[in-house]
Write a structure and sequence with these properties.
The protein is mainly α. The protein has one domain: MetI-like fold (Orthogonal Bundle). It contains 21 helices and no strands. The two termini are 21 Å apart.
Length: 505
Amino acid sequence: MAPRPLELSAALAVAALIGAPLAAVIWRAGALSALGPADWAAIRFSVVQALLSAALSVALAVPAARALARRRFPGRGLLVTLLGAPFILPVIVAVLGLLAVFGQNGLVSRGLAVLGLPPLQIYGLHGVVLAHVFFNLPLATRLILQGWLSIPAERFRLAAGLGLSPGAVLRILEWPMLRQVAPGAFVAIFVICLSSFAVALTLGGGPAATTVELAIYQAFRFDFDLGRAALLALVQLALAGAAALLALHVAVPQAIGAGLDRVVPRWDAQGLAARALDSAWLALVAAFLLTPLAMIVLNGAPGLLSLPGPVWQAAGHSLAVALASTALCLAFALPLCTRWGDLVGLAGIAVSPLVLGTGLFLLLRPVADPLALALPVTAMVNALMSLPFALRALRPELDGIRADYGRLAQGLGLTGRWFWWRVALPRLRRPLGFAAGLTAALSMGDLGVIALFADPERATLPLQMYRLMGAYRMDEAAGAALLLLALSLALFWAFDRGGRVRAEA
């Protein structure tokens, strides 16, 4: 129903914004033989940490999701809702929370000191994997929980009627579901961890824990070796593209079956041992997820009101970038809510922000000062990175609107912009609010392209916070982390709430 020229213009604009930087990267790249030992080490580390992070996240998520599927208790809905927090939690904020718990002076290390044991060493491969599990365990739990909920309740009732043991229920009903759902969750998390930047930058601990994306940043920022940065960008694109193609073959299936809206007691999980095991897993997951957030609040509250001026200036920059990213993302997403438009938007998944940033620097350098355009470029790249999430939120709703009201709108002459204004947009307020809130929160906490372009006068809040951490001004960094967390959550809540007010069902 959208005007065809508008769809075509949006598709061409997105393709150009992705393709032109990639073309610049390809043009500047040298032969693969130019990769040195340090580059191959970065590639190996990227793949190894992504494999470990995905495997641990899925392995820990299986018992947690099973416990959530088998138990009903006060606060269960709130706990499930909190599992979505990593999608909007700024990476640099979460890292500071993890340091407060697992760092050398963190809660766990203090407890070990009481027992006469040495403190934890969080920097290195194990620190990167720990952070990635923290981010992606909730995602894996949500994905696998959907698989458990897709098993029709009548099958569990039949299993109880047949007197099947818990082991038989696991073997006959639950294991086949896990074989379908777990590989998709694994690949999705692998893709996310493969292009790690902020986590490796803060917790890598040295050259031995360098990812490809961090190597791009180092080649550009410190060595000013554009050829090596472009070549590494191509390697990053190839790895992400291969993982994305693999994800298409092991995608998480849709929930199917009858009786999904009925809650049936799990007679196979009524024993004391099963109850204790489920309770233990849920308690561990909740403590692992919520303790770092609580430490961010406790550590940051004292220094929040005494933050220096550059931090507040950086907060203003981040707000401007987040709002601009949101407007750009929605301007691209609405016209692209078609089958072929969806494919154009999803092309950005395989391209990391640093790859686009490297290409944009190559394009801008001959005609303008890239540092002067740091904030607009960051807003544009963040919009492209959020586009697939916005399309996923908007397209199913818009498809339903077209199916329900398309013929009637055509009969009444409501086509083109009138269809959007009178029919589509009023019914898209809810998903539009969610997509806008998600885009704004993700952009607010991004530490990627801005690390390539920014100078001290144009820093965003995540970059300013990272600089405070590097200068060992940890009290101010903790206050900045709390400010960043509050602003990210406030943006998400404001947009999401705005989309729900007077929204039609």
